[in-house]
């Protein structure tokens, strides 16, 4: 029965560390670019867009659709990159707390 108590204690520690790590995701950032760097979008681990940088040469009425497409592409690139970084951040925060159990997938928590 002591093993079960230890396991419950570990789970509480995992929950606490996950909560702390998730709160710190706002500090994890990544920038995606499109159009050879003419549009850059920075997002954080919470998938909030922090900034958008646009090369002044792109700001012409006739280039509006292209600019919109580049913003979407850069945003998606940044979100994809920050998801990877955030997953690693959360993995490190809980490293060593849970045994390596085959089939146990905690990706849904991240």
From TrEMBL:
It comes from the Bacteria. Pfam families: YbaB_DNA_bd. InterPro entries: YbaB-like_sf, YbaB/EbfC. SUPFAM superfamilies: YbaB-like. It is found in: Cytoplasm, Nucleoid. GO terms for molecular function: DNA binding. Residues 4-31 form a coiled coil. Keywords: Coiled coil, Cytoplasm, DNA-binding. Gene3D superfamilies: Nucleoid-associated protein YbaB-like domain. One of its GO terms (cellular component) is bacterial nucleoid. PANTHER family: NUCLEOID-ASSOCIATED PROTEIN YBAB (PTHR33449:SF1). Homodimer. NCBIfam families: DNA_YbaB_EbfC. Binds to DNA and alters its conformation. May be involved in regulation of gene expression, nucleoid organization and DNA protection. Belongs to the YbaB/EbfC family. This is Nucleoid-associated protein CLV58_102237. It comes from Spirosoma oryzae. The lineage of its organism: Bacteria, Pseudomonadati, Bacteroidota, Cytophagia, Cytophagales.
């Amino acid at each position: 029965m002591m093993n079960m108590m230890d396991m419950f204690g570990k789970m509480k520690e995992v929950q606490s560390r996950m909560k702390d790590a998730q709160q710190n995701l706002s500090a994890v950032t990544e920038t995606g670019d499109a159009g050879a760097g003419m549009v850059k979008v920075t997002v954080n681990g919470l998938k909030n867009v922090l900034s958008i940088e646009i090369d002044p040469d792109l700001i012409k009425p006739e280039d509006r659709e292209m600019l919109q497409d580049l913003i979407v592409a850069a945003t998606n690139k940044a979100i994809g990159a920050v998801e990877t970084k955030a997953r690693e951040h959360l993995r490190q925060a809980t490293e060593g707390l849970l045994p390596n159990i085959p089939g146990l997938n905690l990706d849904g928590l991240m």
